[in-house]
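User: Some background: our group keeps a shared notebook of sequences we're curious about, and every so often someone picks one and asks for a predicted structure to add to the entry. Today it's my turn. The entry only has the sequence so far, pasted here. Could you supply the structure so I can complete it?
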Amino acid sequence: MFEESFIFLPGVQERTERMLWETGIATWDHLLDAAAVKGVSATRLSFWKMRIREAREAMRREDARLALARSLGTRYAWRAYGHLMGEPRYLDIETSERRHDVTVVGVSDGEFYQALVQGRNLTPDALQRALEGASCLVTFNGSSFDLPILARMFPRALPDVPHLDVRHICAQAGLRGGLKRIERRLGISREGPICEYEGADAILLWYRYRFGDDEALRELVDYNAADVLNLRPLLERVVPALWRNVRHGEALAFPPAHRVEET
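Assistant: Of course. Here's the predicted structure to add to the notebook entry:
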């Protein structure tokens, strides 16, 4: 979908992009081959072609490719989904009632999950190692919550890579509300005692653990793991449906859910 997107070109808004698609310019190659485009000056068309050639060259270099993905901006970063998901890191944090007090950081590559717990193994070095090599970070509402908090607490631990905020991607697909609400709407279930837990429960679990209840910590980690591990199936279902809607005008429909097991 990235090479069907023109939204990163100077002066191109959604309306202009749709006009290009409707006139048969569906990919970068089509634009490069076009001798003229209705409503676009020869100077602007030449400039767009230069930027696309630069973008294609950048795609061959990892550092430049990620910079190009960032050029899509927060709203459209999901369109680079196929180019960003080589080594993703899915991330979610838990805090006490004080937002700056991080109790658990959960990180996954989409298959394996690890929990970094305050007072045990949550250190700047450990977080940096967990995120090392990431091609992008994936969160739910991390733009407003997780990443700003981690940036203040562990300023050198976060890699400078694109960020996909699943909450905002879901909102563009008409899926609004918290993570658990969206999961229920898509038929993604959680197992065990954590299935009904919310953020306030995570805070209570932390204090139960601090007062000596080790089982509470296990439940807190299970809760965090579900938050982290369910981000992958959400992306895999929402992004293709959103693209079909944007590109082809198809009604938003999501494939059947499948349960993600913790590993």
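Suggested note for the entry: The first strand starts at residue 88 and ends at 95. The chain has 13 helices and five strands.
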